[in-house]
C-alpha cells in the first residue's frame, strides 16, 4: 500500500516493514510528542474474518499481559475500509535478528538477550498463551534510560494453551518451530516454545540457526570454550522428544540465568567483552541511585573474574562485586528484621534482581552490605534465615578484617548463600554482608570481604 498521511491522530513518518498479514509504520503521536509503531492488517486480508479475529486477538493478549518484556499495545482502531490497526511500542533499535547479522555477539550479551526473551515467554505462558513463532526477528530492541530493553513481539500465531489439542493447521517458522508444530492437529504445549527458545539460543551463541531436527552439533563445537552446561541446555531444548526438554520457559530461563551469573564464564575473552552490556545498564542505574561505581580487576584464585567496586556515598562504604552480578544497584535497601534489631540500618544492594533479593524461591545473585554499630554477635541472625538447615561456620582473619562467615552451599535449590560479620581489628563497627552465588565458591566470598573498605 502507498504511504498514508495518518492513522487517526497518528502522523505517519515511514514504513518499518511488511509481512504476509500486516504492514508496520513508524508514526508520531503529536498530541503526546511520542513515536509509535502502527501495525495495519494487509489489504488482501481485509475481508477474511478469521484473519481479522487473529489480528485483534494478538492485540488483546498484548494488552492484557501488559509486561515490560512484551511489546505494548496502546490503542486499536479500524480504518474506513474496515481493516483494523493497533498502535504499539516503537522499538528504535531494530530486532535481535539485526544484531546477529552484524556478527558474533559476546557470550554475556547473548545470554542476557536470551534471559530477557525467556522472561517474556514466561509471562505469556503465565497468561495461558503459547507464542508459536519465537525467532530473532520477532524480538525487538528498544533504548531506555537504563539500557537496552528486549520486547517479544508478533503474536499473530499465539494461541491459548487450553486450545492446544485443537490446532488444525501447522504454524510457525521453519528452523525455529518444534517438530510437533509441523503436524496439523498435533498436540502442542509450552514445550513447543521451549524448542523455539533453544533454536534462538543456538543462533545467538553461534551466529547461525540450528540444523533441521534432530540437532546433533552442539554450539560448543562451532564456538569453542562455551560452558558445558550451556551446550547441554540448548541441546535438551532442541530435543525431538519434548519429554526431554526443560518443562517450560521459566525452567529454561532460570538455567540460562544461572549459567550467565556464574563468576567464571569459561569462554576466553576479556572481561569487558563478556560483561559490556550489563555493565552499561548497571552504570545508568548507578547514576540514578546516586552511587559511585568504579571497576577493578582481581584474581579469585581462578582466571577471568572482574569486580565492580561500588560505593554508597551516604554509608561511606565501598564493596567489590563481581560485575556479572551487578545488574541493579540500590542504596537504602532495608535490612532483614533480625538484622535491623541488631542495630543495622538500610544498606547497599548490587544484585541481578533487587526486587526478589529476599525471596527464597527466585534465584537472585549479588551482594548486600550494611554497617552495624559496635561488634555484636550476629550468630543468631546468620543462623535463622534465609536458608533451611544449619550453616557451615568458619572464622575469617586477615590483615584488614576479623570475624565469622556462615555458609549454606545449597540454599533452597537456588545456589549458595553466605552471611558475613567482620570488623577491622580494634574498630567498633561491623560490616554485615549477604552474598548469593549460583554455585558454592568460598574463595569469591573471601575476595569480596577483602575488597570492602570503610571510610
From TrEMBL:
InterPro entries tied to this protein: Kinase-like_dom_sf, Prot_kinase_dom, Protein_kinase_ATP_BS
Top-level lineage group: Bacteria
PROSITE patterns named in the record: PROTEIN_KINASE_ATP, PROTEIN_KINASE_DOM
Entry keywords, A to Z: ATP-binding, Kinase, Nucleotide-binding, Serine/threonine-protein kinase, Transferase
Domain Protein kinase: 10-259
One Pfam family, short name: Pkinase
Amino acids binding ATP: 39
SMART domains given in the database record: S_TKc
EC number: 2.7.11.1
PANTHER family named among the record's database cross-references: MITOGEN-ACTIVATED PROTEIN KINASE KINASE KINASE 20-RELATED, SERINE_THREONINE-PROTEIN KINASE NEKL-3
Protein name per its UniProtKB record: non-specific serine/threonine protein kinase
